[in-house]
């Protein structure tokens, strides 16, 4: 099965700032690019942080701002109230991903941390692109018939050597319903797991049955009755 990777969905043309980019220039780039955050690059193109709208709000240019922010901010963030350039305002280290990361893992990272986008970097941290929530959600826009074909030909036939005619695969709005009868119980479990891993699958309804419960067949020591290993 081919797993959709960050490389397949990322945006390559990325607006960035340097560590010494001034506050107002950062704001201008954010507004013009219609994004909420920008990667901050070192002179060699390595991502050293991300500066976001939230970071910029610490310095709003009002009288008395320092006293207000320094009273309520954690010391690790208080310096942003005085920040004038990207290196003083950015959040670091940047949370990044790599081009060969599966889209599902990137989606989980975005959701777990509440981020809207992730810089995509190479092995040494140089920027290659950006992947956003919208990019990863695009993986779920696959047509139902494409998902059904992948279940039949990649999961059943190619991976499991199971005749696709023995399994009914129904896909509606990304939800896959599997029904039919397989030879082994262990096959039912594996087929469900592999189907879940297909890009575009929202959920799997497993109605498969089986001929043999091979998961409960064990080899037992004839002397003391202890389990030696699984038969399969």
From TrEMBL:
Stretches assigned to the CBS domain? 10-68, 90-147
Question: Protein name, please?
Answer: CBS domain-containing protein
Under PROSITE patterns, the record lists:
BON (PS50914), CBS (PS51371)
Q: Which organism is it from?
A: Kibdelosporangium philippinense
Is Amino-acid biosynthesis there in the keyword field? no
Instruction: Keywords in alphabetical order, please.
Output: CBS domain
Q: From which residue to which does the signal peptide run? A: none
Asked if Amino-acid biosynthesis is a keyword of the record, the answer is: no
Domain BON spans what residues?
Answer: 143-212
Q: Which domain of life is it from?
A: Bacteria
């Amino acid at each position: 099965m081919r797993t959709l990777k960050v490389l397949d969905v990322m945006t390559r043309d990325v607006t960035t700032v340097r560590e010494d980019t001034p506050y107002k220039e950062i704001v201008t780039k954010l507004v013009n690019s219609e994004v909420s955050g920008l990667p901050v690059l070192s002179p060699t193109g390595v991502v050293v942080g991300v500066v976001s709208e939230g970071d910029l709000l610490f310095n709003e240019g009002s009288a008395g701002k320092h006293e207000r922010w320094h009273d309520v901010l954690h010391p690790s963030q208080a310096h942003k109230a005085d920040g004038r350039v990207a290196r003083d305002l950015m959040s670091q280290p940047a949370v990044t991903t790599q081009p060969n990361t599966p889209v599902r893992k990137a989606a989980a990272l975005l959701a777990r941390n509440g981020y809207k986008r992730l810089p995509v970097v190479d092995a040494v941290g140089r920027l290659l692109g950006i992947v956003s929530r919208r990019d990863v959600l695009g993986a779920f826009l696959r047509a139902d018939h494409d998902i059904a074909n992948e279940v039949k030909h990649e999961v059943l036939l190619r991976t499991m050597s199971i005749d696709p005619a023995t399994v009914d695969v129904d896909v509606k709005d990304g939800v896959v319903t599997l029904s039919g009868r397989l030879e082994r119980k262990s096959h039912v479990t594996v087929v469900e797991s592999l189907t879940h891993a297909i890009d575009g699958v929202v959920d799997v309804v497993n109605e498969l049955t089986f001929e043999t419960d091979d998961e409960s067949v064990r080899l037992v020591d004839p002397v003391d009755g202890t389990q030696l290993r699984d038969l399969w």
